[in-house]
Write a structure and sequence with these properties.
With 364 residues, the chain is of the alpha/beta class. The protein folds into 2 domains: 180 residues, Beta Polymerase, domain 2; 124 residues, no CATH class. It is built from 12 helices and 8 strands. The strands form 2 sheets. Strands 1, 2, 3, 4, 5 and 6 form a 6-stranded mixed sheet that branches. A two-stranded parallel ribbon has the order 7-8. α1 packs across α2, α4 runs antiparallel to α5 and α11 packs across α12.
Length: 364
Amino acid sequence: MNTQKLDPHCQKLIEEYRSLLPVYSHIAEIIPERLRSFFDDAGIVVAAVEHRVKTESSLKGKLRLKGSKYNSIYDITDLVGIRVITFYTDDVEKVASVLERLYEIDWENSIDKRKIHEIDSFGYLSIHYICRIPESSYSVPEYPELNKIRFEVQIRTVLQHAWANMDHDTGYKSGVEIPRIYQRNMRRLAGMLELVDDEFSRIRRELSDYRRQVQALVSSGNLSDVMLDGDSFRSYLEIRPFDALNQRIASINQAEIQEVDLSNFLPLFKIMGFSTLGDLNTLVKDYSEAAYQIACFQIGLTDIDILSSSVGPQNLCTAYILKNGGGRIGLKMMLDDLGGPSPGNEAMASFLVEQTKDLPFMNQ
């Protein structure tokens, strides 16, 4: 432990630090809260927003090394530290943009370490902004010094953060000389992680482009060109393809339609062999009358006045399975897939086969 005493100037800085410690703590509390709020408004999802106030012992160590360069405590810009950890490299720039809108940036002392990239510096590519809170944005009467204090915000990705922690733990940056073979392996790993970071961002951009293309195709009605998957099915449901059938079925008893999540139909549609949204559109077009006939048989003599929005697609699947020879086995598979395996599904499948065999659509 370094027991070297501080000179009078540095001791004065320590006293200033102690007097301002409540202000530092306040800044460290409010900045993450305000950042999270702005990220939510901007649609930016981050992995974490961390904060810390430099301890007195850490500050003393800093002052022993270079205390003479600071005229006052306000010259020390890292007493409050904020770290924003993003999932993707693209979001680093978005977070930086938020900071630039919210705070006064001390550009002379800020640094973008990505621009001085070295082969083994992957985990240290953070953007480091030195910020100050403008009085017009936020001020507290009991802390008049708050708007004079500068603080540091680091922005890095999850992988960069993990690498920096691992690298620190191995002592790689400790100044201890280690064999070149280990240095080489660490640098190789850094390069691999940087490629992974970039690939995650590239994949996300391509998925975003794909979703926009799917939405455009669905809106234009070119459904046969759209493969059936999670994204395309969500876009398809947005045009509410089962509403007309559901409303027709509801009119049998003047029932109310209760909206439910229809995403569980996607695996069933795929099992049934549908591969494009055009296939689903054909199902709706060709089997809506049969689905309506099944509904008339099921609820025509009941007083049911609330129906799930799944009634239409489920009856479409029932009609398709029956008309194409799936019979009891196919219906049981459908019931198992939609609601989970149950002892009653086989009996219900047998009942449907028996009771629908004389419906008009089965004899066409």
